[in-house]
Amino acid sequence: MEAVPARARAYVAGVACLAVLCVLPLPAVRPPWWALLFLAVLHAGCEHVARRRFAGTAHPAFAPAFHPVLLAGAFLLPPPAAALVALPGALLSRVERRPVLLRRVWRAARLAVAVAAASRVHGALGGRDAVAGADFPYVLAPAGAAVLAFCLVLTALDGGLVALGAGAPPPPLGPWGRAPVRRAWRGLLPRSLAPVAVHGLAGLMMAVLWRSPYGPLAALLVLLPMCVSWWASAQYHRERAAHQATIRALVQAVDIKDGYTRGHSERVGQASVMIARELGMDDERVEVLRFAGILHDVGKLGVPTRILRKDGPLTPEERRVIELHPEYGHEIVRGISFLGEARSAILHHHERLDGSGYPYGLAGGEIPEPARVVAVADAFDAMTSTRSYRRARPVDAALAELERCAGAQFDPRMVTALVRAVARRGWCPAVTADEALPPRGVPAPDGPVADRTEAHR
């Protein structure tokens, strides 16, 4: 069972008490019980199906609560009843990680509070009367305000849990772990607003049809396109899970074979992402560069183990052998279509701007941009990681070395982007192998980064 900080448990308990307070006035408002029961059962069923459909994906958090039904409840019912709609599905649905009970309570409480807030805002703006009269376009304004309130409450609650040490978003399924307060709420609202707005529109259509002469059964028709959308989304995330599994298998094989650089691939992927984001690349290209960084050394699978694990400088013949690893890597991933331009980075990440690199001696703009990104990320992590033959360099010293070699070995744009990204976000590299000192008789390599053994290993 994962250790959950006491402050996080207290926070979850506080939100749960707030949810109870939201539901307590239920007898006084006298809701339509059959509608409440129908929506609660419908939400629980949709939640169960959605969680099962998303089971086994790389990111189980992509199986969110079924918001169309919840928001339809917010548009149709008073706040205490709308809050109650969320509880059965959230408490009974699948949870991927422990502690199961705490996560279920948190999920149910946060949804109940958010739906109650949305229902209160919707009612205060006259939304229920507009829904009953199908009063378009005036029905849209209260619904939009309710959706915004729903997102704001979820964002506030989720960010608070992250700040208190209970995981990266989304908190219901994320790992427990504290984040700096200044970053706890960063990006939560923009990520949730667009999808919840779509769900809110579906919920509004359900509510309007519910109040129409066609009745609740007509409202169920709105769920058909939503179910198709969820099925397509599940297929997409299953495909992503397969991609991630393929990459993990290749990286693990390299790490097993080359123990000196264990973890190096993951960190090069991280540094490549930092550079790409600093350059303003779109998310799809950033993901490709992450793959490129992670797999840049996959060609080491074709290099003899005795060379990879050799202590000390390589002989000229051994250097020629290890310089074949970009071509080996390109051949290994040639048939993996989802890697896209990451394959060119794997092949060319040891090229130099002045044309003295390998395997083809490309120069300047002939080197693909992804390869220039990975080259900087690779050299940076090589210098800031401990190897068997020398200790890690300080981050500032490694960045200074990259700047010194910019223009000859590295693209200055990529170096500048990494410097800015590290200044903004920091860099905490892990030790790649063990904490060994350089072996006796093996001098620490000197000279430019391009001439060091780690630049080739």
UniProtKB/TrEMBL annotation:
The chain crosses the membrane at residues 6-26, 70-93, 105-125, 145-167, 188-210, 216-234. InterPro entries: Cyclic_di-GMP/3'3'-cGAMP_PDE, HD/PDEase_dom, HD_domain, HD_GYP_dom, HDIG_dom. PROSITE patterns: HD, HD_GYP. Residues 261-383 form the HD domain. Residues 434-457 are annotated as: Disordered. Keywords: Membrane, Transmembrane, Transmembrane helix. Gene3D superfamilies: Hypothetical protein af1432. Residues 239-434 form the HD-GYP domain. This is Metal-dependent phosphohydrolase. It comes from Streptomyces echinoruber.
